[in-house]
Amino acid sequence: MSSFSDRLVSAWYQPDFNPLLTPLLPLSKLVEWQVRRRQHQYHLNQKSLWQPPVPVIVVGNITVGGTGKTPLVAALVSALQRRGYRPGIISRGYGAKVDTFPAVVLPDSDPARLGDEPVMLAEMTGVPVVIDPDRPSAARYLLSHHECDVIISDDGLQHYALVRHIEMVVLDGARWLGNGRCLPAGPLREPADRLAAVDFIIANGKPVAEVDEVTCNIMTLVPTRLVNLKSGKPMPVSDWGELDEPVHAVAGIGNPGRFFESLKSLGFTVKEQAFPDHHAYGSEDFAFAGGQPVIMTAKDAIKCRRFAHDNWWYLAVDAKLPDSFWEQVSAKLSDFPSSFQSVSANG
């Protein structure tokens, strides 16, 4: 039997308004009012806030649930490094259990203590990662301990204490804005017109909605390899032998169906095992496996390595975006004063 939260999310993304949501409409209006008030206060007080001495790029979303921000952040780091920049990452550190903030995240940090996505980003990118619910505090710490000339904020679009110079919003192309209503009668953290104020809109996959291709960049997550959880050894997807033999597909992300469909498109026969986003895995969660192969997302793998079996893998993906997107990002960065620029802007 599905939980109320499952039925609520399903109702958000139905083509027609679901009567289940009617009692929640007054709360949605209240959320929208509060959000607009905070936006207004930010614009009024922006000059009095701490002004970072380097450009800040916020990669966020206006819907709840995962949309593909993490692969975009990793791709952004690589693209900036190729152009001579020295990026660093800040994050709230959702689910982190540490005594004091800011906290430094390393590739071998415990995701149960420091958060799954920050640890994954530290491992994927190799750049400094600092977590703190207070984003300006994280940014100050990052700059005081590392020679970064660009800060990337993983999420934080709604964290208006942080001055930002470039805003990127990532949307799930298959889900888009759902019914277009704010929480809790819809999936939106902010009203849909917020999109008009951001610098870049990125669709993870082809959008179901009619969009202006000039203002919407389509991101494709390209599977590159399977990586063994125990050994860390990579293997081309094409080297997987028995595609007819079922594998357990595990996903604890915002939209597990996207991961399952990705595996099916590669030819796998999957047994779907969906978990809540940011699920804290234990070995008991895998009682279903029965010795059969398990393939999961990279974010799930970070939390499962300590009890992984020999035939557990994760699917590594790379975010691909149009060349025009990277050119526009470079152009916006080049608009900043020369003191913000990297020592080398080639590439």
Structure, explained:
The protein has two domains: 232 residues, 3-Layer(aba) Sandwich (Rossmann fold); 98 residues. 28% of the residues lie in helices and 20% in strands. The protein is built from nine helices and 13 strands. Strands 1, 2, 3, 4, 5, 6, 7, 8, 9, 10, 11, 12 and 13 form a 13-stranded mixed beta sheet that branches. The longest helix has 21 residues.
Alpha plus pi helix count: 9
Structural class: alpha/beta
How many angstroms does the end-to-end distance come to?
Answer: 54 Å
What is the annotated CATH architecture of the largest domain? 3-Layer(aba) Sandwich
Total strands: the figure is 13
The number of distinct structural domains comes to 2
Write the layout of secondary structure elements.
Elements (H helix, E strand, L loop, with lengths): L3 H9 L12 H21 L10 E5 L8 H14 L4 E5 L11 E3 L5 H4 L1 H10 L3 E3 L3 H11 L4 E5 L11 E7 L27 E5 L11 E13 L5 E2 L11 E5 L4 H10 L4 E5 L19 E4 H7 L7 E9 L2 H12 L13
Parallel strand pairs: 1-5, 1-6, 2-4, 2-5, 6-7, 7-8, 10-11, 10-12, 12-13
Antiparallel strand pairs: 3-4, 8-9, 8-13
